[in-house]
Amino acid sequence: MKYDETFFTSLARVLNEETLQPRDLQMMGMLLPLGIEKGKEFKPDAATVAQLKAAAAEAQAWLINGLVTTSQPWWPGSQWSIPGGSLIGIETQAHWEVPKYFDVDARGIAFSTYFCPPEKTGSGSFYLNTFKDSKGRPLQGGKTYRLHVSANVPVREFWSVTVYDLETSSFFCYSTRLTLGSLDKGLQKNTDGSVDIYVGPKPPAGKDANWLYTPAGKNWFPWVRLYGPEKAMLDKSWKMPDIELMVS
Fold it and tell me: The whole model's pTM is what?
């Protein structure tokens, strides 16, 4: 999705294609001042287009800031958190409804990051992400990092690590490999069975099989997916180490 004036054109088109539900009426009323109305063509003038372009850019900056700043640590003192910016999505099974309010901000932040959250995590799958290294610094594409994954990850099936562009929540262009995980046959393991995953613009010497690409000038974040999480993951007795910046 592009965060510019074309977002509103796409929104108007989708609204005209989809069935209007009673729950949608409040939002449809908020869209009227923009000239978006079901059954009518969206034709903003030049001044409105300029305002919509600026508004979309501001919204993107707000969403990214919310994603980074509202994420709640899964383990005390850890940089790892639950994807989506808030535990409310997990606690309410992606409905974002709590007794005293509807968390519209958390929902917006979540859906700007991923398309469709699982209704319930913990039984079949569990997810972690982070935006900072072990020292609390933003993850930068031009630097090289290491994630040490222990040999005893508490999963019944498998785990994987995927990196994303913080600006778009999508993959980086020119990546030769999008994800690495315990099912990769070429993955290099340490003598104790643990695995070191490297992330950066180029792999450390001899570590190509364990490397994920990030370009300079971009911030990034990982998703760690754990399929078949076991008790030690859910009761927090096992802990994923924070990502470490490698110093050359």
Answer: 0.84
Predicted pLDDT of residue 66: 86
Maximum Cα–Cα distance across the chain: 65
- For residues 198 and 204, the answer to whether their CB atoms sit within 8 Å is yes
- Confidence band, pLDDT 50/70/90 cuts, at residue 119: low
Residues of the chain with CATH 2.60.120.600: 73-245
Q: Which of 233, 200, 229 is nearest to 217 (CA)?
A: 200
Distance between CA atoms of 118 and 114, rounded to whole angstroms? 10
Instruction: Determine whether domain 73-245 maps to CATH 2.60.120.600.
Output: yes
The pLDDT value given to residue 244: 98
Confidence of residue 56 (pLDDT cuts 50, 70, 90): very high
